[in-house]
Structures are given as structure tokens and as C-alpha cells.
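Researcher: Please translate sequence to C-alpha cells.
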Amino acid sequence: MIVADASVVLKWFLPDEPGTDAALELRTRHVLASDSIVVPALLAYEVANTLALTPRLSEEEAVEAWDALLELDLLVSPADSDQMRRAIHLATAAKVSVYDATYVALAEALHSDFVTADVKLVRKLAKHDVQCAVRVL
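Model: Translation complete:
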């Protein structure tokens, strides 16, 4: 089981970026049930916002991408109070957004790996006591 953030999931619908092949491999492993992808509920908002606002996609293409995401049946986890406290702590300590820290807090709670394409985030987290493996595509 892994926790993937929006930077990974968006590569499934906005190809031709660094890390796209690795992101697609994660998706394939999820579809084949060889590895499950868990995401916090906020992923829906982050992905929908990017799909809607990217000039690379028409509105119709953005909606098609959204529908394709829903068909993947990612495991969606609402953040509990302890996870949000941890996310706030990480955000404050590492100077990252609570949005980014929420993914890490979820991965810690599930004893899972956190996968991202955000190299800057990984660098910031490396300086702090993160209780999960952090992988960059």
C-alpha cells in the first residue's frame, strides 16, 4: 500500500512530464491489485482544480480525466484529528503546505510509503523526523 499525492496522480492525465512512466507504473500496479493506492480526501480537490485550470486540456478533456480517475477506485481516507495535528506539525516544522503534509501524515498513520513527484517537498521533509518512507518518482 502506498500514499500517492496529486503530483503523481496528475501525471496519469498530463503525460510527457518527467516521472510519467513511473507514475503510470504505480497506477497499473493499483489496477492489477498488486499494490493499493490510498489518498486523502483532499486529492479530489487538488486534481479537479488542476484539470480544470490547465491550458493543456479542454473542459471536456478535464471531465473525461476526472471520470477516468473515479474509475480507478483509489482508496480514499478522510483525515482524522490525529492526522491533522500531525499535518499541522509537519507543515510548521518543514515549511510545507498542510495539503502536502496531509499526505505524509496519512502515510505515517498507515505505515505506508509516501510517493510524490515534488522534489522540493522531498528535500524539505528530509530535514525532519518523518515516520514513513518518502519516495520521489
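Researcher: Any highlights?
Model: Residues 5 and 100 are 8 Å apart (CA to CA).
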